[in-house]
Specification:
CATH class of the largest domain: Mainly Beta
Radius of gyration: 21 Å
Number of strands: 13
Distance between the termini: 67 Å
CATH topology of the largest domain: Porin
Number of domains: 2
Largest sheet: 13 strands, antiparallel
Mean pLDDT: 82
Shape: globular
CATH architecture of the largest domain: Beta Barrel
Strand content: 35-45%
């Protein structure tokens, strides 16, 4: 009898483990507010504090303004990651235009669902009183497996226009794991950025959420990124010609 139980013991452990994992996923599913990709994206786009910061730096530190724009897109991607996959609510139908207004800032965002196959395509427009505007497109790709985790490609193409005719263009190549599986917002990949003041840069988001990268102007590094996507992006400026800037990457 003991021998039989001994042979069955690994099966019992595996069964209990499966039940535990299933229960964990079920609790995450039931505890997550179900909203569509478009609604989550709208909520993320309306968090405009970084764009206000970008406006404040235009006069004497355009590289810092570009860094704030990069932080804005990274924050949008991170916040919009919640609820991807099985935890998401019903998606907007193709051709549906969703509009949301922030109750305090007066910012208004409109998101049009343009396609659903092979990728869901969301085109957005954000107007911010006394600050500027954001125009862009997000694609939400189909599920693929990466190290046993279901993930989706979620690239963005974004243009930000602020006061004093400042314009920044940003393109992301990001991957978003399924929130139901990870139990937390996660996004990784890279964002390339440039503006009409001669600044260009690249921001990397690691699998653990670590932020890194630089901004350059005239082949000189003028600032460096660091931080965590969940806590926020920090940007350190370097004064060209002072001897304290790092070598160009």
């Amino acid at each position: 009898m003991a021998e039989i139980l001994g042979k069955r013991w690994p099966v019992a452990v595996l069964t209990l483990g499966t039940v535990a994992v299933t229960g964990l996923l079920a609790s995450r599913y039931l505890g997550t507010r179900k909203v569509s990709s478009a609604e989550r994206l709208a909520e993320a786009l309306l968090d405009i504090e970084r764009l206000r910061d970008a406006n404040r730096n235009l006069a004497d530190a355009s590289e810092a303004s570009l860094a704030h724009c990069a932080a804005y897109l990274a924050g949008v991607a991170y916040r919009a990651a919640a609820g991807k996959g099985a935890a998401a609510g019903a998606e907007d139908r193709v051709g549906y235009s969703r509009t949301q207004t922030h109750p305090y800032t007066g910012a208004v965002v409109t998101i049009l669902t343009e396609a659903e196959t092979p990728d869901r395509v969301l085109t957005y427009a954000l107007d911010i009183p006394e600050v500027g505007e954001v125009r862009g497109t997000r694609r939400v790709g189909g599920v693929r497996m990466s190290f046993l985790t279901p993930v989706r490609r979620t690239p963005d193409t974004m243009q930000i226009t602020l006061n004093d005719d400042y314009t920044a263009q940003l393109e992301s190549e990001l991957v978003t794991p399924d929130f139901l599986t990870t139990g937390a917002n996660r996004v990784s990949g890279s964002i390339t950025l440039r503006d009409n003041r001669g600044n260009v840069g690249r921001l990397h988001i690691g699998n653990d959420g670590t932020l890194s990268g630089t901004v350059t102007r005239d082949t000189q590094v003028v600032g460096r990124f660091e931080g965590k996507v969940a806590q926020g992006l920090a940007f350190t400026r370097f004064q060209i010609g002072s001897g304290d800037e790092p070598p160009a990457e």
